[in-house]
Amino acid sequence: MTAFAAYTIIGLSLGGIFSLAALGIVLIYRTTGVVNFAHGAMGMFSTFVAWQVFYGISHPFWPAWLATAVAVVAGLLFAAALGLFLDTAVFRWVRSREPVVKAVITIGVLLALQSMASLIWKNNQYHLPIYIAPQTWTFMLAGVPVGANSLLIIGVSIGLAFGLAAFLRHTAFGRSMRAVSDSPASASLWGVPVGRVGAVSWMLGSLIAALAGILITPFINFDTTSLTLLIVDALAAALIGGMVSLPLTVLGGFALGLLETYPTIWVQSLGFPRLVALVVIIAVLIVRNPRALAVSSR
Amino acid sequence: MVSRGLRERVAVSLLGAAVVVAAVLGVMTVRALGQPGSALVAQQGQVAGLQGGSAQAAGTPGAAAGATTAGRPGGSAGGSQGVGGGSITIGGFFDITGPIDSSVERDTVRSYMQAINASGGINGRQVTYVWCDSKYDASAAHACAQYLIAQNVLAVVGLTAPLGENNEIRTLTDAGIPVIGGLGTPAEYADPMSFPVSTSFTRYGTALADEAKALGVHHPAVVVLADVPWVHPVEANLLNRLAADGIGYTDVEEVSATQPNYTATVFNLQHAHHGPSGGGAGPNYTCSPGATSCPDYVIAALDPFSYHRLFDAMEAANWYPGVLGTGLDKFNVQRSYDGELRNAHSLVPFLSPYDHQGNATVRQYLGTVDHFYPGQFQALDIYTQHAWTAAMVFAAAAKNAGPSLNRQSLIQALDGLQGFQTGWSVPLSYGPGDHDPNRCFTFTADSGGGWHTTSGWVCS
Amino acid sequence: MTWRAGGRAAIALVAFAVLARLPAGLDVGFQFDAALAVIWGFALLSLVLLTGYVGQISLCQATFSGVAGYAAGMLVSTFHMDYLAAVGLAMLASFALGVAVGLPALRLRGITLAIVTLGIALVFDKYVFQDHAFEWLTGGSGGWRVGSASVFGVQVDSSKHLMAAYTILLALFCLVALLMVNLHESGAGRRFRAIRDSEVAAATMGVDLTRYKLLAFGLSAGVAGLGGAFYPLVAGSVSPQPFWLFTSLQLAAIAVLMGVRYVPAAALGGVFMAFVPDVLTRFGHGTLFGRIQYDISYDWFQVAVGVLLIAQLILLPDGVWGDVRTRAARLRASIRKQSRAPQVKVA
After folding, report:
1. Theoretical Cys-Cys bridge with B226: which of A92, B254, B323, C312, CB 3.0 to 4.6 Å?
2. How many domains does chain C have?
3. pTM, whole model, 2 decimals?
4. How many domains does chain B have?
C-alpha cells in the first residue's frame, strides 16, 4: 500500500514534466497552427546553450546562484533568438500551406537541431544539468523524496497554464495571435501585423520550450535525444487538452504521468510506459477527435 | 515571396547551408579553444602532480605532426595483410554516435600509436590506425567489421562497442584477423585468435560477491544493467555466489543504460523484492520493518554515467548505504559525485590512476593522451585502460615478430608472450588456444576523499 | 495500354541489368551499402505508395521493416525455416501489422495520423524491440544471428556473398517498382489517388474507403517488410537500432525530399541513405595541411537531411525527382515546339 502512495508521488512528478512540455506545444499550435514535433529538440538546444554558459563561467569566485541565473537568462535569450530565426527563415514562407506540410517541416527542424547539438556537444563528456534549486532540498512524502525542483516544475506548469490562457484570451496581442493562426489573410485585412505577430508567437513558443528544457533536464538524461523523445508523451497530454485548453493540458499531463507510473509497480519494464502513452493518444483521438485538429486536417 | 528562378533557388540553398555550417563550425571552434586540458585537472585536485608527466610521453613531444591516423580511402589500405613497405595498418570500431561515446577509447589507442610513430615506429614501420563508427548498434558493428576486413588490417586493436563486439569477434577471426583487447565480452575468451587483456565480465559477478563477503556486507540490494546482451551470466554468477557465500540479498533491480531517473529504482531497492529475470537465485531476505540500515549495501553493475544517476537519487532520498560496484572511477563523472560517495568500493582489473601517480605506465598513459588529445583527458576511465593495454600488447608482439610481419607471425608472437609486464596489472601470458590471461582485480575505496587501493591482486 | 506496360517492363529490365553490375568492383563495405540501399529503397517505396499515392502520412515505416526483419530472423533461427519461406511469412506479418495500424487511420487524417504513427514507432522502438516480454521475437538484446542461406538456389550471406544478396534484392526491387507503377495506372490506383485528392469526393463516387485504406496500409507495410526481411541476411544480425524512431523520421524526410509521388525517387533516396553516411565515415576524416584535423561524421549527414528537407519543402514542393521530371517535361515541350515552329525565311 505504501508502494501505491509512493508511486502516486512519482507519477505526479512525472506528470508535471509532461504538462510543462505539452504547454509549449499547445501554445505554438494555437498561435501558429503548427504541430511542432521539434519542440523538445528546440528546448534541448537552448538548454545546452545555457549549460555551456554555466560551464564556461563557473568559477570559484562566482556564487553558484549567480552563475545559474546568468546561464538561464542566456539560455532564454538564445531561445528567443532561435524562435525568431525559425520564423524568419522557415515558417514565414509556409504560413499558407497545409498543416501537414508545416508538421513535416518541423521534422526537418528536429533532425537538424538534434544533429547540430550532437556535433557541438559530444556525448563523451558527462553534462551536469543546471539545477535551479539544489538537489538536496527535498522532503520525504510517503517514503519518496519530493524535491524542490519537482515542485518548481509543477508550480510553473500550473502558473503558465492559467497565465497564458489569460494572455491569449484577454489581451489584445493575445487575441491577435489567435486571429493570425486562424486565418492570416483575414487577420491582415483587419490590420494585424501578421509578420510581427508570427515572429512573436515563435519566440514565445521557443522560450517556453527552453524553460521546460532547463527545468526538466535534471530529471531525464542530459543528452541530445532525451528531450526530443519526450515529444510523444507531450503530444499525448496536449491531445487530452484537445490542443486547445491549456489548463486541461496540464491536467492531462498529470493524468498521463500517473497512468505511466502505476503499471511499473507490477510490470518491471522500461518501454511499457511508452505503450501507455500510445494507447492514451489513440483513445483520445478516437473518442474525442479534437475538433481543432480535425477541421484543419485534410 | 521567394523567387522561383533556378539561380535564386540554388543561391538561397547554398546560403542557408553556409550559414548552418558556419554556425556549427564556429561554436565547435569556440568550444575547442576553451577546452582546457591539464588546467582542469589541477583545478579539480583529483589527479595531482600531472604536469611533470607530459614530458615522460614516449618520444619527443611535438614531433607528432607527421603521424597519420586518418583512414586511407578506397580499397586495401593495408597492402598485403596490413603491412606494406614502411607502414602497418591496424584498426578498430567504436560506438561513437548514439547514446554511448567511445571515442575516448579510440583516441587512447591512437595516441599510443602516434607516440610510437614519433619515436621511429615499430621496427622502422609507421603505424596507421583505421577506425569505424558502430553507432551503438549490432548491425553497424557488423558493417564496421566488414569495412575493417576490406581495409586489410593487420590486426584489430582496442575495439570498444558494448552491443556489437561480442558478435563480431568471430566475423573478424574468420577472416584471419587477430583481435587484441576488447571490453571483456564472452566471445573474446572463446577464440584462439582473440587476445583479451582484461578480465571477463562473467568473472566480475563472482568477484563482486567475494568482495562483498570480504567487506562484511550483510544484506545488500542489487542493481544491474539489463540491456546489454551478455549481462545475464554476470548477474547469475553474482547472485549464485552471494547465495553460496551465505549473504542474503533483498532485491534485484534491472535497469537500462539510458534510464534517466532512478527515484523509483531507489525506492524499490529499499522496499521491494524483485527477482532476476534471466536466471540466478531470487531474493532470499526481507528486511525487518523499521530496520533503518537494511539493506546496508547496494551492489551495482552499471556504466559510469548510470552510477551518477543512482547516487543522485540516493542522495535525494537521504539514503547512504555502502555501494559496491565496478569501474566507478571516471574523471569527469567523479567531479559530479561531490558529497555522494561516502562508502563506495570498486573493483578494477588495472591499477587505479588516482593513487598510482608514480607508476610508470600510469604516467605514460595519462601524459600521452593529454598530449595528443587533451580534450579527451577528462573522459578517461577503466575502459581506456583496456585500450591502452591492448595497444601495449600489440606493440610488444609486433616488435617481437620482427621484419617479416604478417598476421601469422603476429599471432605467433602474441602466443609467445609469457609474463608480459604491463606495469599496472598482473603479468599477462598467452599461448596457443583460447586466452584468459587476466583473472585478477584490486579493490579500491572512496569515502569522500578520492579513490585509494585497498588490496593487492585478488585472483580467481 | 499493353504497349505502355511493355515499355515499363523493358525499362525495369534495363535498369536491373545496368545497376546489377555496378557494385561488383567495390569492396565488401560498399557492397553492403548497396544491399542496404535496396532495403531502404523498399521502405521508401512503401512511403511512395502510402503517402504519394494514397495521401496517408506515416512516420513508422522503419517499424514495419523491423518487424519483418525480426520475424525472419526468428523463423530462421528458432524454426530453421528456409529463408525464402521466412521472408514470405515475415511479409505477411508486417502486412497484418500494417492493417492493424490502418484501423485507427480510418478515422484520423493528416497530423493526427502522423502523431499516432509516431507513437507506434516509439512503442516498437523502446518496448517491443527491447523488452523481455518480446524476446521470442527479438532474440534478446543480442538479436538473431543469421549465417548463410540459400535463396532461389543462390548462396547468400553477409560477408562473402553480398553481391548475390544485392542482385536478388535489386531484382525484387525492380519487380515491385514495376508492379507499383502498374498499380498507379490501374483501377485500384485510381481509387487510391481519389482518396488522396479528396476522401469525401471519393466516398461520394463509391470508393470503399475502409477497404482501400486498409489495403494501402497493409500493402505499404508489406513492401517495407520485404526489404526488412532480408536485413538479417545482409547484415548478419538484426538489432533495434536500424529500425528506431529516427530512422522512420529520416525515411519520411528523404521520401519527401526526393519526391514522395515518384517511384524512382525511392531508388534515389535509398542510395542517398545508405551510401552517404558510409562515404562520410571513410573519406570524411583526415588532416588538412597536416595540421587541422577534420571529422565529418554521421551527424553532419543528418543535419544536411534536415536542412535540405526544410529548403525543399519551401522551394520545391515536388521533391528532387519531381523537379527533374517537370524540367524534363518542359524541356521536351520546348524542343517539340521549336521543331514544329515554321521556318520563316527572310527573303
Report:
1. B254
2. 1
3. 0.82
4. 2
